[in-house]
UniProtKB/TrEMBL annotation:
Protein name: Phosphatidylinositol 4,5-bisphosphate 5-phosphatase A
Organism field: Muraenolepis orangiensis (Patagonian moray cod)
Catalytic activity as recorded in UniProt: 1D-myo-inositol 1,3,4,5-tetrakisphosphate + H2O = 1D-myo-inositol 1,3,4-trisphosphate + phosphate; 1D-myo-inositol 1,4,5-trisphosphate + H2O = 1D-myo-inositol 1,4-bisphosphate + phosphate; a 1,2-diacyl-sn-glycero-3-phospho-(1D-myo-inositol-4,5-bisphosphate) + H2O = a 1,2-diacyl-sn-glycero-3-phospho-(1D-myo-inositol 4-phosphate) + phosphate
Comp. bias intervals (Pro residues): 29-48
Biased composition annotated in UniProt, kind: Gly residues: 672-685
Amino acid sequence: MDPVSQDQSPAPSGKPEGAELLEVTSQEAPPPPPPPKTSDLPRPPSAPSPRGAYITRPQGPQRSARVEGSVDLFEPETKPKSKRVGPHGDDDDYEEENESCLDGAMVSHPKPPQPPAAGQAPGGPKAPRPKLHHPVRAASVPYETIVRPAAPHLNPHAQRAFSVAGTADTQAQSGEDFRVHLITWNVGSAMPPEDMTGLLGLNVGDGNTDMYIIGLQEVNSMINKRLKDVLFTDQWSEACMDRLSPFGYVLVTSQRMQGVLLLVLAKYYRLPFIRAVQTETTRTGLGGYWGNKGGVSARMSVLGHTVCFLNCHLPAHMENSEQRMEDFESILQQQQFEGQAATGVLDHDIVFWFGDLNFRIDDLEMQVVKSAIESNKLSVLWEKDQLNMAKDSETVLEGFLEGPLKFMPTYKFDVGTDTYDTSGKKRKPAWTDRILWRLRAKAAAGSAPKLGKRASMSGLTSGTKVTQHCYRSHMEYTVSDHKPVSSIFTLQFPYMVDMPLVSLLVEDEWNCVADAVVTFKVAPSYPRSSWDWIGLYKVGFKHHKDYVGYVWAKQEELDFQKQEHQVTFTEEELPKGSGDFLLAFFSNNMNSIVGVTEPFQILFPSEQPDATPSDDSSDLSSEDDSTVVPTKTRSHSRSPGRAKPRDLSHSPDGKGLNPADPETDAVDCPAEGGGLPASGLGGSTSAGDAEL
Ligand SMILES: O=P(O)(O)O[C@H]1[C@H](O)[C@@H](OP(=O)(O)O)[C@H](OP(=O)(O)O)[C@@H](OP(=O)(O)O)[C@H]1O
């Protein structure tokens, strides 16, 4: 079932839309209504929680143990040129590369601006609800039907959220930028390093990355390790979530096939715009029976445009270039997604193909390769790179683009060093680790009508643009025989077709239990389920199961006539401490968050505001980069719908702060650690630019 197709289905006439959609999707939904009392509901297994109180709570949607504190991210000073001495000598040209990368990075990115009865929480008595009288926070407020003069109790934040989310001023928006940060790393069965700040760009980023896509290969998949990973989250996923959740990134999806792992995390306020997430795996090892080699992918619609991320580990060794191409083709052939929007990988508007693709440098002797690296004459090697050569001859690679390989080959190193292989194997250095992208071909003139509504809505015909800001390696990481490679892109979508399916309104602060009322509105096309729920999350949460409380948002018959619905959190569902929280509406049919508020504060009179993240929150203390100051997000945070929320750019205590310059909204390509160079594309008109 394709959630995109659901949300675009016209409502059948003569019937309440919600009812019809419910029928359409009923196969996937758990047993039919009424699911009402929390205590009656089956509770899927979940990770053990340190909060005993919640573990013993009646069954409900799955949750996990930890929630993180909120954080701020700021723009540090302009990064000094990093001058490096390569493992083999000369450094001057590296400095030039660093320059060109920074130039390329300085691109400005302006962002456009059944259920419990109403008011009754599952399992709890209905609290009489006074008319909302406090300022209300809204996040994702959508569709035309609810456009009307803002109620007097809506504060400016809420009104801004309305307009940004695509109601009143949608027409004025010409497009939407979406920044993605991709990483590929063959981790050679190593444990995650303590410090991943440089790799994730947390020390130089401006906090404007919308999504992280992390593709790993050779994640330890020994049998005992795998068993442990099935029971608990694997260490790499955990490490990435630990590092990124304090900055507001939430796991969207993950997929693992033996050692090949793909993680997708997005800023919490982007979640309602990321839909129809599906994953695929293809084994190509041992003739297709073993998953030591192959590809894992995640596809989704981002702001209404289809995007696919494919992480591959292709066969090793010089002589297997053809096999690599065959395996790639076989992966493309085998990976088929449900729904009409984009079934094959290459049907997506944008495809990112990355991983340990294992291509080598042909012909040239070891000495020639090493001396080209030492003298930084990397271009000598480009034409002998097997993948570059294949780009000229293999039809399947048509349309794939890649930035210039201005970084040293990322394979093979002696573990613990940045010295190329000195073992008996004496592997020739190679650019095994790559990140490529491809835009779907323009629809031929006159073919648009055949593509139908969905195609025309997904922006296939004009304006979709991908800009690569940097493409680089990270030499400072030595746990594996490969170096990680990362790249930052801006995806520019011609217009914003996606609007949140559910909007949530809450009071600005919850000062007493009676404040814990949530008003929500659903888009006419939203496929409601009686198993939808609204989760209360501590700011900095890792994934949708990380809620600290929830209420069911099930549909009553009377709801069909109502535009606005209300649910109430009971005292039992509320956190015991104070802090910054947000609410997210989880769609059972779409299996994703479809509405989210901006952060608000819970501060009950008996409680003192937390100066630090509470109990189980965040491992921020382990963050030792003084330039990164994750901190709590106060309730004055910007609307999730508002682009580039700089609210994550300050710290209440002012410690170590170097706030982002609000005037400078640039992508910074992080320099390599340890004085090593950054490399990337030169200027905003780089070869990495591509327009549909
Ligand atoms: O056996 P499979 O599962 O295919 O895994 C291979 C082998 O371990 C190769 O070792 P060997 O050469 O001993 O066969 C190794 O090459 P290197 O030894 O060159 O590292 C490859 O590393 P990667 O190149 O990192 O994929 C790895 O993918």
